[in-house]
Fold this protein.
Amino acid sequence: MTEATKVNPDLQRERDNCTFNVTELTNLIDGGAQKTEERRKREEMVLKEGIHLDEVPSEYLSHKEKYELAVKKACYLFKMIRRLQEEENTGMENYQEVLGGSLGSAILRDGSPLTLHYVMFIPTIMGQATVEQQVLWIGRAFNCDIIGTYAQTELGHGTFIRGLETTATYDPDTKEFVLHSPTLTSYKWWPGGLAHTANYCIVVAQLYTKGQCHGIHPFIVQLRDEETHMPLPGIKIGEIGAKLGMNGTNNGFLGFDKVRIPREHMLMKNAKVLEDGTYVRAPSSKLTYGTMMFVRVVLVNDVCSYVAKAVTIATRYSAVRHQSQPKPDEPEPQILDYVTQQHKLAIGIATVHALRLSASWIWNMYNNVTAELDAGDLERLPELHALSCCLKAISTSDAAETVERCRLACGGHGYMLASSFPLMYGMVTAACTYEGENTVMLLQTARYLVKAWQQAKGGNPLTPTVAYIASVSAGRRSPPWDNTVEGIIHGFQQVAAGKIGACVANIEKRQRTGMSYEDAWNMTSVQLTSASEAHCRAFILTTYFNETENQIKAVSPALRAVLLQLVDLYVVYWALQRVGDLLRFTSISERDIEQLQSWYEELLIKLRVNAVGLVDAFDIRDEILHSALGAYDGRVYERLMEEALKSPLNAQPVNQSFHKYLKPFMQGKL
Amino acid sequence: MTEATKVNPDLQRERDNCTFNVTELTNLIDGGAQKTEERRKREEMVLKEGIHLDEVPSEYLSHKEKYELAVKKACYLFKMIRRLQEEENTGMENYQEVLGGSLGSAILRDGSPLTLHYVMFIPTIMGQATVEQQVLWIGRAFNCDIIGTYAQTELGHGTFIRGLETTATYDPDTKEFVLHSPTLTSYKWWPGGLAHTANYCIVVAQLYTKGQCHGIHPFIVQLRDEETHMPLPGIKIGEIGAKLGMNGTNNGFLGFDKVRIPREHMLMKNAKVLEDGTYVRAPSSKLTYGTMMFVRVVLVNDVCSYVAKAVTIATRYSAVRHQSQPKPDEPEPQILDYVTQQHKLAIGIATVHALRLSASWIWNMYNNVTAELDAGDLERLPELHALSCCLKAISTSDAAETVERCRLACGGHGYMLASSFPLMYGMVTAACTYEGENTVMLLQTARYLVKAWQQAKGGNPLTPTVAYIASVSAGRRSPPWDNTVEGIIHGFQQVAAGKIGACVANIEKRQRTGMSYEDAWNMTSVQLTSASEAHCRAFILTTYFNETENQIKAVSPALRAVLLQLVDLYVVYWALQRVGDLLRFTSISERDIEQLQSWYEELLIKLRVNAVGLVDAFDIRDEILHSALGAYDGRVYERLMEEALKSPLNAQPVNQSFHKYLKPFMQGKL
């Protein structure tokens, strides 16, 4: 091995000391050895093309150049995928496998201007267009003859989509819809790829026909000339400007000045407008929930992959970095030896597993419910909706917090873009807002929980994910505290049920003073979000525990021990974070809490030896991780310097601003 | 008033409904009406020069162009200050007034390459150079004939400065020091202005003379030729690369290849090296604490000004933004009407006051202690050190959290750079790491607290800021819970004392099992940081309450009511956040907690009507706020669009990447 490929000795020692088989865990995470092999093959195929390599790292480019580079890379990436799809057995049959996971984000690290074409434009046509419309559009879209996006959010309206202002007014004389933006706030604002990339677009607008408004409906609209790419008449379009992150996504604005489209451009799988302007209602309004829930469910997995990257970087860095000298005659320890550092990292590692298993659980539920839906059974839709809302909120906010905690755990070097943390944070924190703002999401779940409480009170049966409410709402005394993982999980259910009960009591109390239900709800809403969070924590803890219990049946004793330690750590960590809730709603004692604290500290020490092995098992290639601090070989300082030298500012020893400004200023001649 | 200068009617209505005199509060914050006038005059003088205006907003520039713009603006800013200083009565006599506050950051929003010249280079010469050395350097530095910076941190060492590796070896033959970077990790890394701006530098290095190492000492080193700006022989210098924020600061790296400097370039006010190489020790090693504490104390005020900006933006936006329709037949309410939104904003407003008063309290203490120090009295130094460490940690982390909470409270639009949040977050979160990493800071305070506990146990008197420990350590029973602000503050002291006591008990218990003190400390360190935080919370709550009680004596009844509501809110908010601690260490009951929750919700409603007035009182000019969402006139959507249109990408309807990549890709010809 040459100097340049040698692994840092501290990191090597960590690997030598790992007590379990790292590959076994990787296979478990992937869902089997073959899946691991397939994933690795896919990564190799994509990465060997070298599209991810930049001459100058994109962080040094101007905003405009960043966009141009993103278009270039996105085109080459999709060209390659198109080619690989045509070949057989490349594992590229599914766009999502490549786009959704870490692989796509390794190539387009700050977002892609083509993502919404695949993630929203095509799926919306598939889900909401008639068969005739699909014949017309799907082929061209799949082929990328046209590039589309999805325009819903407006300058003045985001999460509350009923308030959208763009109008689509049917004109029976010409059999056309007239799309119009009546106000500045009605401009579409935010859609990715809309600014300069897409030439077609699904537009969500308020449908007017025969003088009546029928609420929002989707329309397909051509935005730009297919040959010249010039915006069509009446289309006012551009980009919304620089953002905290995702500067490769080309988010745009769009205004209509009475733009006419044929009647057939309304997507009419559900509701319809006939030639004469007659409106035909959709069979069920709940059918449109589907896509929104799909995206939220997928999001959980998505943010999870960022958490895995973040803890991989921070853990490896912590094994390489040495600091301070607690004992006078000994060398500076690895910062991984500090318990405060372990406290920041171990929970991050456990969070990856907890969220991944929760994501996969809700993914199964989603598929079951969708199948039932297709068979006309809508019964479990509200439960899925409620669960997907709070899980979206908690997983994205936990993920954002974990990424930042990992960054801060790397000290100053985490602040460098070369660490990869800042770009990741930009991606993850965005998810706290898009696809349903998190506070709104928690309040949506709270509505379901309050309803469940009232159902239980009325003696009605509850759906499985809220079944725990029944015993608390019936006023049954809580059992004596059991200071085990199962006991804590049960305690979290009592907390959630207790909080929901307290909310209901508060709302009713306020109503009795003459307050309207809506105002009483609003006054109680801080507590409602907290109840909703508690419910979600109980769900994640339960799922993580149960799914791990299932998984470990088939693993080696060494790995089993570590996986159980991780579950213990996660559960005890959250118990200590929520001691106040447990004290209020369960019979936990001060002695129990002190025991939990010691248990937690012991778990940190136990997991210490396997920290590097645990993140190695996430099996994230250096090209995908893209971090000077986190590479497999641990050459942290060498890579930091190599990255610094790529800055164009370092190409000249003296910058021109010296002659133009600095020297005249120093000589008093400016 | 023209359309373009009209205030948004929602915002105007908020102002009309405000119950107190906004100017009265502004004056109170500034320290009197005359101070307000002086500040405004200073702002007007600087801003009328127009240095803050950019042709193209800097967020659209390349990394290199950002630096060049920062140099240009920094030179013009300091040229102007130099000129104004020469004139009389401009209030510009003190650089810090202009640089430290919001004004400097309004012009150089992403950091300045000249800051360290004023903040570290000149002060270090003043504090650590002999009179003869000052004669030589101070004039040139004040005049900006030379531009300096301060290089301490290295690639491999930050907070732990004893571990620095750069060497300065005295050669008695030539009477020179030889500066050398023995390893890659010994390269200086991070100093602002070091990369391409400064031509001189204070370098902190391990001093070797007569074969012995005497620890770290400061040296003044010329880096670049004064005429050509070319790096001098043996100087390896450049920039460290792009960062999460502060991309105008020109952070650099610096390596030495046996660079020789005259003996007189060691700053010798304290320790000395004689011509023959004899080392003369400094009279007291504690003297060097001063500057570090100064910076930490100033930092509290500094981050506070960012919190004030953040809540101003989020509150005004929340008055303008409407969303959802909780009541079927009513219009969409302002989002400020949602209690969940008030929950995010009100605590932010209170935090500004709490931190500002704490900052001013510790600033007074700092000045007193420094005066005592000059008189040879070192007694209160450890107390000041302990308090400045935890206050630095808590104020920066609270500030960073508040800025992010405000950003997220603005939904998607907060994610735009035009909101100003992302740049602010970059500045504030950096302060969690620099000048002493926050976890390390908390553990420094914890050492003092543990010592105080042991002193109290030994019956010794305690210093004022930890005096509350005495009664708990003596095992006195806590008084019955008192559900008032004073009662809660007392409760927080009990929590802090209780946690310190628990830490001491845990450390001793672990030592009894044969563990070394250092290992026992490490095992207990998660609890130690928590004790340290609790101590700091108790200090901030106490100070905020006491200082407000003092201030309100001289204010109008209307303002007094609001200021007291804010204190109540702050104290009750933190009580609810720390319910677990209160349940463990005080006699608070479930009923008390429920009352606190109702009290909190009522306070939110009471403060609602004055929310805009409260942030208006921070009196931050639009040019300093620099936010499309937060401007005084509330023209949120118009400004967002105006900012978007400044993006160079919007200058052409079709970007060149369409012809180069997108069209060939769509046509299958790429």
Q: What stands out?
A: The two ends of chain A are 56 Å apart (CA to CA). Chain A has a mean pLDDT of 94. The first helix of chain A runs from residue 9 to 17. Chain A touches chain B through 139 residues (CB under 8 Å).
